[in-house]
Each structure stands twice: as structure tokens, then as C-alpha cells.
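Example record used in the benchmark description.
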Amino acid sequence: SDFLLKRYSIIVLDEAHERSLNTDILIGILSRIIKLRQ
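Model output (C-alpha cells):
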């Protein structure tokens, strides 16, 4: 599967300023993916 999300060049997180556990986890996962893709 595409765990590095290579088919996407942009991912928009709407309402990311409204902090929650789910958005914090998602931002953490996306940060790791960005590092792996570089």
C-alpha cells in the first residue's frame, strides 16, 4: 500500500487549529511521512 502517500502532493487539514488528540496524531504522522519522502 501507499503508506508514504506518494500519489498526493498536497494534504489540507481543515480546522487544524482546533487541537484534538486526532489532529495531533495526524500531524505527527504526516510530519514523519514528510521526512521519509525527502
